[in-house]
Amino acid sequence: xxxxxxxxxxxxxxxKWLGGTYPTQQIMFFRCMIALIPLFVIIGMRGGVSILRxxxxxxxxxxxxxxxxxxxxxxYALSLMRLADAISILHMTxxxxxxxxxxxxxxxxxxxxxxxxxxxxxxxxxxIKPGQSMLExxxxxxxxxxxxxxxxxxxxxxxSIRDDPVCITFYFTLTGVLISSVGLIWLGWKxxxxxxxxxxxxxxxxxxxxxxxxxxxxxxxxxxMVAPLKYLTILFGGSFGYLLWSEIPDLQSFIGIAxxxxxxxxxxxxxxxxxxxxxxx
Length: 281
Hints:
Layout (H helix, E strand, L loop, with lengths): L1 H18 L4 H22 L11 H22 L4 H8 L2 H11 L7 H18 L5 H4 L1 H21 L5 H23 L6 H27 L2 H4 L5 H14 L5 H30 L1
Helix pairs in contact: 1-10, 1-12, 2-3, 2-9, 2-10, 3-8, 3-9, 4-8, 4-12, 4-13, 5-6, 5-8, 5-13, 6-13
C-alpha cells in the first residue's frame, strides 16, 4: 500500500504538470492505454481471458462510465488546483460512501458515523471555499469526481461478489481507452515532444501499477491495516506541490484538510466496526 500511495502521488503530480499543456482526454488516453499493458500481463498470469467472463455486463458498464467520468473530472481539476487541496477533496470518498449508504442501501448509520460525515463536509467547505470562483479553482470538478468515485466504490462492492478484481479493472480501463479515443477524435490531439511523451506514458504505468499494488495490499492484509495509509497521498501530494510549484495551502485549507482526513479515517474505523458486528450476527 505504501508503494501504491507513492506511485499514485507521482501520477497526480505528473497529471498536474501535463494538464496545463495537454487536453484532459489526451492524458486520460495514455493513462488507460498504457495501463492495459500490465493488465494483459496479469490476465495471462491468472489463466487468460476466462477471468474476464461476467454475468453482470450492465453493472460493469455503469461502473466504467461513472469511473471514467470521475477520472476526467479529477484530471481536469488537478490542472487548476493546488495538489494538496485537490487530493484532500478526493478523500471525501469514504464520507460520501457513508452518506450514500444511508439513502441507497438503506443502512442504519449511528451518531458516530453521522458526526464524521458532518465534520467531513465542514472540512470540505473550508477547502473549496464556496463562491463564484469554484469553477475557476477546479474545486467543484474535484468534488463531483469524489462523489462519482464513491458511487463506483459501492458498485464495485456488488461486482466483486462474483467477479475478479482484474475483470473489474480491465473493463473500466478499456472503457477509458474507448471514451478518451472518441474525445481525441472529436476535440483534437496535441503532438508532444519526446520528454512530454515519456511523461504521458509514465502516467499510464504509474496508475496501472499503483492500482494493482493497492489490490494486492487488500488481498494480503486486513483492510483496516492498509486503507488508512491512502491518506498519506495528501502528505506526498503536498510535498510534490511545494517542490514543483511552491504551493503552500493557506491556514483555512490546512484546517479543512486536517478535518477531512480525520473524518475520513474515523469513518473508515466505524465502517470496520460495523462490518465486524455484521459478521458476528
